[in-house]
Amino acid sequence: MNVDVQLWSFVVAGLLVIIGLYAIAFMDNLVKKIIGVMLVGDGVNLVLITEGFKPGGIVPIISEKLFSSGAVGDFANDAAYSLPFALVLTNIVIGASTLAVLLGISIKLYQHYRSLSVAHIFQEDDA
């Protein structure tokens, strides 16, 4: 992955976050708002993956052979960053469970109000 691809990954991540925030703020349908929340999460994941990339990086697995050869310093310079990838994996699990909860809440709201319109759900009863 060269610098151009990394730059475009950041641009796409920014677009995902902007589109997601637009959906959260301005869409009336509850499902579209939920999709917007997921788009924001996917944009954040793409930023973390792009930031964690290191050109020419190697898998950060430390073995006994590495210590016996004395190449620990070279290994530390060439190893890829593993923390962003671990954070993305955790964020995917949290995002899936959040999606399940949000969809469950939207099903209950639809059963009660017979609509997924946020304006209809928050409409004050005059009676």
Report what the structure shows.
This protein has one domain: Helix Hairpins. The chain is built from six helices and no strands. The protein has helices spanning 3-26, 30-52, 64-69, 72-78, 83-113, 118-121.
List keywords for this structure.
mainly alpha; Helix Hairpins; 6 helices
Question: Low-confidence runs (pLDDT<50, min 5 residues)?
Answer: none
Q: How much β-strand is present in the residues?
A: under 5%
CATH topology: Helix Hairpins
**Quaternary state, please?**
single chain
Overall shape: elongated
- The CATH architecture designation is Orthogonal Bundle
Rg (CA only): 22 Å
End-to-end distance, in Å? Answer: 62 Å
Helix content: over 70%
Sheet of most strands: none
Our count of domains comes out at 1
Q: Tally the helices: what do you get?
A: 6
- The CATH class name reads Mainly Alpha
Run of helices and strands: HHHHHH
Mean pLDDT: 87
**Secondary structural class:** mainly alpha
Number of strands: 0
Q: How would you sum up this structure in a few lines?
A:
By secondary structure, this protein is mainly α. The protein is 75% helix and 0% strand. The protein has six helices and no strands.
Topology readout:
Blueprint: H1 3-26, H2 30-52, H3 64-69, H4 72-78, H5 83-113, H6 118-121
